[in-house]
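Final report, closing paragraph on structural work. Over the funding period we assembled a curated collection of sequence-structure pairs, and we close with a single example.
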Amino acid sequence: MFHTLQDFSKDMRFTVTVVDIDDDPNLSRRYNEAVPLLTCAGVEVCRHFFDLEALKRALTAVRGES
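Its predicted structure, as stored:
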């Protein structure tokens, strides 16, 4: 998922931040079986598999675009 996100990040104007859930006990408990997981502004976008349409919807919502 990371490399796919990097490919889209320049065209869609967003940055990718990787978080290792094993470094945070709360995240580890919450998402242990849900990785990889993609969030946008704290909201889950997709898990296990990349979903481009879900990412587009999330970015649109965060940016206030219609």
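Helices lie at 2-12, 25-31, 52-63. The chain has one domain: 2-63. We thank the funder for supporting this effort.
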